[in-house]
Prior knowledge:
The mean pLDDT is 91. This protein has helices at 4-10, 24-37, 56-69, 85-98, 123-133, 153-164, 178-190, 207-216, 223-229, 236-255, 271-279, and strands spanning 13-18, 44-47, 74-79, 102-106, 137-142, 169-172, 197-198, 200-201, 261-265. By secondary structure, it is of the alpha/beta class. Helix 10 runs parallel beside helix 11 (271-279). Strands 7-6-5-4-3-2-1-9-8 form a 9-stranded parallel sheet.
Amino acid sequence: MTRIADLLAAGRTFSFEFMPPRTDEMLRNLEKTLMELEPLGPSFCSVTYGAGGSTRANTFEAVSYIHHDTSMLAMPHLTCTGQTRDEIGVLLERYRDEGIDNLLALAGDPPAEGDPAGDFTYATELIELANQVGDWSIGVAAFPELHPRSPDRRSDRRWLAAKLERADFAITQFFWTAEQYFRMVDELDALGVDTPVIPSVFPVINVATAKRFTAVNGADFPPWLADLLDPVADDAEEVRKIGVDVATRLGQELLEQDPPGLHIYTLNKSASAKEIWANLGLGDGR
């Protein structure tokens, strides 16, 4: 049993993020990716959760596979959107009974279609319920460029600070320039927050996907990045190489300032994640 809060107290964490598979073919691809990344010894692996719980069962299966069939530490995402208290309660009990010690509690993105209504609005409500069910190390999300539903910077940072008081750590949504992260950390520090906030990096493998994810996060897709990627958008390997270079440079800038860790999006593919890991000299993250 390992708690991410304890790992962070002992030093930096280096981690990966995966998506739950939707088909048998995607499941086989995820298992292959996990096998290829496991030798790197990440501190933990997180598994995302679809809007409105659309991949809830698949998230559980992926987390269970990582927990039981690999040497890696698994952390499931939980989201508020479209979820009832009973649904989340049952899921928490299943994770507790599986021996899962870590959770990432998120408000979540609204589904593209359907009714997003549920019993929860804020991640802090998930934290409250989780603490009634088990003894967890709980993380939350932080948005360096502000939460897309925040009215202004001042209120965003105060709400984030209040959320971090209830959590053991945070992981950022991805961003494209290190200054965004450092500014957020300085603003939280000014509010007396010392909860670890782990920055994340996103290696682009598809230009349209990267732009869509950026927009959902309420972040800016910088012109310099568009200038690099748009001319080669139809060349998948060139896009991937640029994505690795950009993520590596960002990771280097972040690590120079001694963040609590680094979280790498994989999009369920190993090649870019492995290259970034090697470029940054992360070694065995355990």
